[in-house]
Amino acid sequence: MTATLTAPTPTSAAPAPARQLPGPGLAAAWALWVLAAVLTLAVPDALDAADPLVTGLLFAAWTLVLTGWAIHAYTHPATAAALRRRTPWIAVLGAWVLVWEWTTAKTGLLVPPHFASPQHLLSAFVSDAGILASSTWHSLVLLLVGFTVGSVAGFGTGLAMGWSKVANYWGNPVLQFIGPVPAATLLPVVLVVFPSTYSGSVFMVAFGVWFPVAVLTRAGIAGVTRGYFDVAQTLGASPRFLVWRVAVPAALPNIFTGLFMGLGASLAALAVAELLGVRDGLGWYIQWTKGWAAYPRMYAAIIIMIVICRLLMLVLFRVRNRALSWQKDLVRW
After folding, report:
1. Do 213 and 156 meet the contact criterion of CB atoms below 8 Å apart?
2. Are 162 and 217 in contact (CB under 8 A)?
3. pLDDT by residue (tens digit) across 93-142?
4. What sections of the protein cross the membrane (predicted)?
5. pTM higher than 0.70 for the full model?
6. CA 122 to chain CA mean position, Å
7. Integer Cα distance of 145 and 295 in angstroms
């Protein structure tokens, strides 16, 4: 009985992926932004305090960006997937801007000064561009210095308390009693103790970061599995190696959680810290414009502060993702 050998049939090439549009919701989102642009440009304002031309042109430019993005997504699956993820937010923001423009500038249902139209807000950015840029720079420097000092102090405190029973014995009561105190309540003490208003401002920002970083670093160090240390000691690891190459890497998820919480606390402390006599900064600018009832300018500074927080969060996420790349397939991010 002879075996019959058959030549393997060549496998057919995989079909090219079909081109996919970003999604049906994009048309609705695009239409909302077009309607916002038309409303801003064509309907006269009930409040004659700002020129709607530039604002309407910005809305129109954004619709052109969306159009180009959709065209690019038609031939690039990755772009189409990214656009589909963002389409609901684009639609919601378009609807919100449309309602905002209609209820403020076009009908005056929400009257100034407490409610500002998009035109008023854009005018505030343009008229106060110089002082807003200077205030943003001073606040960013103060925030980064205070955040760095507080993060280093919190990490050192948490590491010492999580590793040493003696440090935990003496540090735990201090952490429990002083740590939860809001930074704003320390304002009278800071005015007396610190030699300059700037050093006091740095302390208040750092204090807001110190507590969450210290608590979560301590929890992370104390929660490292004992087996890691046993294996490292069996291989001849020194105490320094156990701390920096075993305990700290294993506690990094907790440490980054503390940094994220500390960033939010530092922004809350920043606005209070800039009331110590600092003559520049977003917190000072917000209080100054509020005193003059210049609410559009105040809202402009608040938006800048939100953008700064968002950008710093993104940077921190990038650092977290790189430092914890080994964890990406083990937990849900």
Report:
1. no
2. yes
3. 999 999 999 998 888 888 777 888 898 888 889 888 899 999 999 999 99
4. 27-47, 53-75, 87-105, 140-162, 174-194, 200-221, 242-273, 298-317
5. yes
6. 22
7. 29
